[in-house]
Amino acid sequence: MVELSEMIGELRSQLTAAMSDGAGEAVRFELGPVEVEATVAVSREGGADAKVRLWVVDAAANGRQSRGETQRITVTLLPKAAVPGQARTGTLLIGGDEVEGER
Predict the structure, then answer these.
(1) Strand residues in the chain grouped as ranges (E)
(2) Cα–Cα distances in Å, from 90 out to 2, 28, 34, 61, 87?
(3) 101 conformational bin, left if phi > 0, alpha if psi -120 to 50, beta if neither
(4) Tell me, what's the pLDDT at 17?
(5) pLDDT value at 56 more than 80
(6) Over 80: is that where the pLDDT of 98 sits?
(7) How far is CA 25 from the centre of its chain?
């Protein structure tokens, strides 16, 4: 299992790679909302700084988990490009030439 934050980090890496791979292509896609659906197991760590963690459950492992231990969640992400040195953000385009402020 991986943490939900790790899964989202990998999604970020894959979208960044798709932007780079499409450089120079004639067709470009504006990146819209990204919906991620996952089955997660919830765990609570004890101690002074107790945390609740969401672990993404592998589809094969899901059959071994009891229904009471897992939850299905959907997260909608709205990817934006950070503009260095500014508070504003920009639209992401998959493919094509670099746009001002795009990384």
Answers:
(1) 2-3, 29-30, 34-45, 51-56, 70-77, 81-82, 89-90, 93-94
(2) 30, 15, 16, 39, 10
(3) left
(4) 87
(5) yes
(6) no
(7) 24
